[in-house]
Write a structure and sequence with these properties.
This protein has a single domain, classed as Thiolase/Chalcone synthase (Peroxisomal Thiolase, Chain A, domain 1, 3-Layer(aba) Sandwich), CATH 3.40.47. Helix content is 35%, strand content 20%. The strands form two sheets. It has a ten-stranded mixed sheet with strand order 3-2-4-7-1-8-12-11-9-10. Strands 5-6 form a two-stranded antiparallel sheet. A hairpin with a 3-residue loop joins strand 11 and strand 12. Helix 3 crosses helix 12 and helix 8 packs across helix 9. The protein starts with 10 loop residues before the first strand and ends with a strand.
């Protein structure tokens, strides 16, 4: 287990940028990535030569995609690394960039996420070992079965899960970077084409293309480059774990989330109730319910009632997925985790406009990936 960030010098998010998440298009991936990086540089008010290192999260682009994209900004000779960690690729890239700054290896590092859909199979399907389910349990079926078990255990209803989609689509309707920008009613969500069990199409995230960029800097670089300190957001903790064998093995993502979030929150020196903003991995509506309970935001079985009462709305107890989450913002894989950091930063700066959660000082970003891997970051406004 790596040493906590508190053992090293402070690292801050100083610049954020995105290219809108969208359906697959003919747009070349360098156009997506460069738009995000240029926006992040402009946001930090620094020039490209100030960046000393790059970590590029991507799951779909293939070999050597970073240099041929970023060379259009100028050849500065800096180290560039591609990071693949399934849905947590961008989150992992941000973690590596943060630790590089915190440990003094670099003063300014770029965490970038860029992806476009691909027909390439997952490596797990090429191991030569056949799964006992014969490929029948695809992700939406897996989560539909977990949703049904939650209904049986806690007396929840399909409407409880659909309300997650209503909330997040409503948030995404006000986010110019979101792939889905249309508010939806409970009737809309429930009457949409069924996918599996209680899950309808609008309760499943779209996988498209896009880009997100975050610049991380040290206090020394902030002073040297004249970056506005009032807009800098500190990374308080970074935790990453992979799954083990759990006593409750059927929902391993939730158990992995429980452990990883507990570590991140402890290292940040806060309690779950202190969080103002959460961006989490809501690829399916049921995941928001599971993960909020695993994080300690809600007790087991209580998340649906809290959702109905508006506790997770912008302006509620804690704003959950104010960006629209994966459900509305979209899930282009590589950029997703970096985009979460950008949204949390925007909220903690107080720059989210109509999506602003008033008084936000502490935020958490959470991603899980196939494998399974979980990455959790806590950010704070000083």
């Amino acid at each position: 287990m790596s040493a906590p960030l508190s053992k090293f010098r402070p690292a801050y998010v100083v610049g954020i940028g995105l290219h809108r998440y969208q359906h697959m298009s003919e747009t070349p991936y360098p156009v997506l990535g460069l738009a995000a990086v240029r926006e992040a540089l402009a946001d930090a008010r620094i020039d490209w030569p100030a960046v000393e290192s790059v970590y590029h999260g991507t799951a779909l682009l293939g070999m050597a995609s970073t240099r041929v994209m970023l060379r259009h900004l100028g050849g500065t000779g800096i180290p560039m690394q591609q990071v693949e960690n399934a849905s947590a690729s961008g989150s992992t890239a941000f973690r590596l960039a943060t630790y590089e700054v915190a440990t003094g290896v670099a003063d300014v590092a770029l965490a970038l996420g860029v992806d476009k859909p691909s027909a390439r199979p997952l490596a797990g399907s090429q191991t030569g070992i056949r799964g006992i389910e014969g490929g029948r349990i695809v992700p939406f079926t897996h989560f539909a079965l977990l949703a049904q078990r939650y209904i049986d255990r806690h007396g929840a209803t399909p409407e409880d899960f659909a309300r997650v989609a209503v909330k997040n689509h409503g948030n995404g309707a006000h986010n110019r970077y979101a792939q889905r920008q249309q508010a939806r009613s409970l009737v809309d969500v429930l009457n949409d084409p069924p996918i599996s069990g209680p899950l309808t199409r609008l309760q499943c995230c779209p996988v498209g293309e896009g880009a997100a960029a975050v610049i991380v800097a040290s206090e020394e670089a902030i002073a040297r480059l004249g970056i506005d300190r009032k807009r800098c957001v500190r990374v308080l903790s970074s935790a990453q774990r992979t799954e083990v064998v759990y006593a409750e093995s059927s929902n391993f993502d939730a158990e992995l989330t429980r452990q990883t979030t507990a570590q991140a929150i402890a290292e940040a020196g806060i309690a779950p109730r202190d969080l103002d903003v959460i961006e989490l991995h809501d690829a399916f509506t049921v995941e928001e319910i599971f993960y909020l309970e695993a994080m300690g935001i809600a007790s087991p079985g209580e998340a649906p009632a809290m959702l109905r009462d508006g506790a997770f709305d912008i302006g509620g107890d804690v704003a959950v997925s104010p960006s629209g989450g994966l459900l509305a913002m979209g899930h282009p894989i590589g950029p997703t985790g970096v985009g979460q950091i950008a949204e949390v930063t925007r909220q903690l700066r107080g720059e989210a406009g109509v999506r602003q959660h008033d008084g936000a000082k502490l935020g958490l970003a959470h991603m899980v990936g196939v494998g399974a891997v979980c990455v959790v970051h806590v950010l704070g406004k000083e």
